[in-house]
Amino acid sequence: CVICTDPIYGDEIRAPCGDYYDKECILDLIQAATRDESLFPPRCCRQVIPLESVIRFMSIDLIRLFHEKKKEFGTLKRVYCANPSCSRFLGEQIDGKIRHWLWPSYICDCATRTCTRCKARYSPLSHRCSAAQQDSDVLALGQTAGWQRCPGCEQLIELHHGCFHMTCRCKTEFCYVCRAKWKSCACPQWDERRL
């Protein structure tokens, strides 16, 4: 097994790259991928391990969780339940109004209604969406701190250290200095002070 390096005596899974996994290690890898977006989908040697090759070893609960995380991680502008003790993924952010005074909302299994625009608790009769003010406050903080926005999904990104080549979770690659597509600008690739 490529993970535990033990001989495989039972069921084995062959990754597209030719590496082999035992059942326990591949299931651990899938579990880890559902908890950490950077590991999703599960890969070996940078090649995606097809779900079809491992689904027979997965429990019904793990299959359901895998599909939920696929939907969540594939959504750029995410809305989570406004109830802090829940925080469940609800769906994609919707910016437009249903009527001139009514914003779209999601109702979670915990019965909390969440505004899809400002992501706060929502009551149809009393809600005043403050997303514009919240957005401007966060953007002002980002500008003061020197953060950039991804040109693909508009998420704020902070460079702690390293080169100016940024890869956002939406897979957009860009220059941190000017936000241009990576390698399409004349900006330096790094700043010695940030290395």
UniProtKB/TrEMBL annotation:
It catalyses: [E2 ubiquitin-conjugating enzyme]-S-ubiquitinyl-L-cysteine + [acceptor protein]-L-lysine = [E2 ubiquitin-conjugating enzyme]-L-cysteine + [acceptor protein]-N(6)-ubiquitinyl-L-lysine. Residues 1-191 form the RING-type domain. It holds the Pfam family IBR. One of its GO terms (biological process) is protein ubiquitination. It is an enzyme of class 2 (transferase). Keywords: Metal-binding, Repeat, Transferase, Ubl conjugation pathway, Zinc, Zinc-finger. Its EC number is 2.3.2.31. One of its GO terms (molecular function) is ubiquitin protein ligase activity. Gene3D superfamilies: 1.20.120.1750. PROSITE patterns: TRIAD (PS51873). Signal peptide: none annotated. This is RBR-type E3 ubiquitin transferase. It comes from Wolfiporia cocos (strain MD-104).
